[in-house]
Amino acid sequence: MADAADAAGRGAGLSRRGFLGLSAIGVGLGLGGTGWGPWPGGAVAAPRGAGDAALRFVVLTDTHANPEEAARMENLRRVFAAVDAEQPQFVLHCGDITDYGSDEEFAAYRAAIPDGLWDRVRHAPGNHEIRWDTSARERFQRWFGPTSYSFDAGGVHFVALDPTQALQEPGLFGDDLERLREDLDDVGDTPTVMFLHYPLAGRNYYVNDADAFLRTIDPYPVRGIFAGHIHRNEIDRFNGLTQVAAVATRSGPFYLRVTQVDDGDGRRLLVEQVTLGATDADAATVQLIGEMPLDAPPAGEDPIRIAARPGDAAIALTAVAGHDAGAVEARVHPQAVFGAVDDGVWTPLSPRGASWHGDLDASTLAAGVHRVQVRATDAAGGRRYDTTEIDRRGATRARPAWELAIGGQLQGALAAHEGTVVATSTSGRVVAIEVEGASRHRRRWAADLGPAHRGAAFTTDGALVCVPGADHRLTALDARTGDVSWISRFDKPVMSTPAVIATGEGDRILIAAEDRLRSLDAHGRTLWEASVPVRTAGRAASDGARVFVGAGDGRAYAYDLATGAPLWSFLTNERPDSYRQLIYGPWDDWIEVLPTGAVLISTVTHAIAVDPATGAELWRVAGSHIFAPSLMLPDGGLLLTTEWGVVSVVDPATGAPRWSAQAVPRVVNAGPALDPRDGTAWLVSVGGLLAAIDPVAGAVAVDRQLFTANTFATPVVVGEQLIVGAQDGVLRGLTV
């Protein structure tokens, strides 16, 4: 068991990309070398034999190693044996190395690679390494080294990018763009090729700030991107570079062979797909799928200057594109699209002299902040993408009052006690504010701890605020001053939200660090610790006698509150393997105790109420309710929200529905917040769209688009203000 409590000072802030401070890009920081990981593949220095010779390397992606899938592992062994026989200078892996990032899967993946090839494989993480694992980056770094880094080979600068987000599906570059800019400054005119998991631009909306990424790299000779995720070959030319999304090796014996040629028209990389034969005795087939120019941009080098004027019914646009533009089109950025593709309609603009003009329909657009995308296409099909932001005026119930930039991403639920609100950031900054009146705030204190990916919790008397940290610590701060009162240390990152339970013997603080559930008193003393199978990332709950938590083996568990002794478990799904048991289970659920005494357990398929003493099922409601905490209403109804933005009020005793309606496009982790003055439930979609719900009348009204960031943080209502946190690192107050 880890130390119960410690009154030591605060730790240094850690970066979003590496829990151990290894996220800075570059080999010169001492991050390379075989000593970092258990295998030589942890090295990130220049690949063996690369030098200044003509490049010859391999790209593969989406191997999805899983030792429970024998045919898939045999496919990987065949692919890596063939790659080894080619003796490439290095191999780039674009992520989704495994199904869910366990050590068993990484070990199986390693066993599929010949020893002589291993030290030439360079990895970037995919969402499958990061999405379902509370120790994701630590585990990745143990096996492969840092998640973002760069190296030089054959006169080309290579950069591994990591826009993955802990415990989330889509990507975000965030603060790492500044480190990327510094890296590109250092290499000057050397052409750069990047590799990452998510493809960018075009119909790809997997990374929410891809537009900021394109602006960051625009001044530099970035000539290519290799990506994965979509499991098929796809080539796009935009903004002066060529992007190659690669076929998934999981799907068959496929990889890409990349060879540098220079026939007098400048260096370029020829990209071929190699498909192995049905057996080792059968010859492989090779198909040229495209090329990547290195010395000159293929298209889209000239920026588009955009003027956008939002009106009541339309957005009037004027765009000045490059002289090669044969067509210019525009659209409102589909902010509701979350980690997916979108083939929505682009509106053509008409040429008039040296500029292009047109209107975008805004008749159904909510008031607030939106992005407008413009793309110019040349005769060869190359494109340029640029984006501008607009603020559409309109009458709304919620009116922006103030903003406070905190930094990092505000990914966890906000905590409130009386007039004090506490926000935690992935940068490690914790800020407490006092909400004053209808439109004011005052910063009370700020503290710097380890990165926080989940929200804090006050003790019941409001004296302490407990902050979970990816630095393996739960830190209790004095709620008046922000000073450290005590620290409870763990062996693994603390990536769940604390639950504080009042008992006759004082508060009990329940917190999980991956596979360990701990009960502490208000002084930070550990009372007991229990095992949670696989992992948990949600929040525990208690009825005063028992503790309930969701686990990564597809089950929910009950423990004795006094001793931590296990009492019962409830199986939420009967999926056939460990990976599916995890992703279809309650591993990320805020378990809740209803006024009836029943325990509410949610997954991506159902909300299930069970008996607290026996775990026997009482009722279930279909729908992906795992990501948004439910809300008890003053009239006794239970407000449920699905991942897909459908809200329902049900009877907590039976699950019988009262009404149901579509509220917003999608909700992830950010549940509704109740205004006790009039009973309105405010709900923020993952795309930043705010809706007002009247639970009694069953009415839903979209109010405004708050921002262009994503949000995973449940807001709070304090007095006359709604306080909202977002992935752009800004805390916002709105008068409601």
From TrEMBL:
NCBIfam families associated with the record: TAT_signal_seq
Domain Calcineurin-like phosphoesterase positions: 55-232
Domain of life, per lineage: Bacteria
PANTHER family the record matches: METALLOPHOSPHOESTERASE, CALCINEURIN SUPERFAMILY, SERINE_THREONINE-PROTEIN PHOSPHATASE CPPED1
InterPro entries per the UniProt record, alphabetical: Calcineurin-like_PHP, Metallo-depent_PP-like, PQQ_b-propeller_rpt, PQQ_rpt_dom, Quinoprotein_ADH-like_sf, STPP_CPPED1, TAT_signal, TAT_signal_bac_arc
PROSITE patterns linked to this entry: TAT (PS51318)
Signal peptide bounds: none
Native organism: Microbacterium salsuginis
Residue ranges constituting the Pyrrolo-quinoline quinone repeat domain according to the UniProt record: 442-569, 608-734
Name recorded for this polypeptide: PQQ-binding-like beta-propeller repeat protein
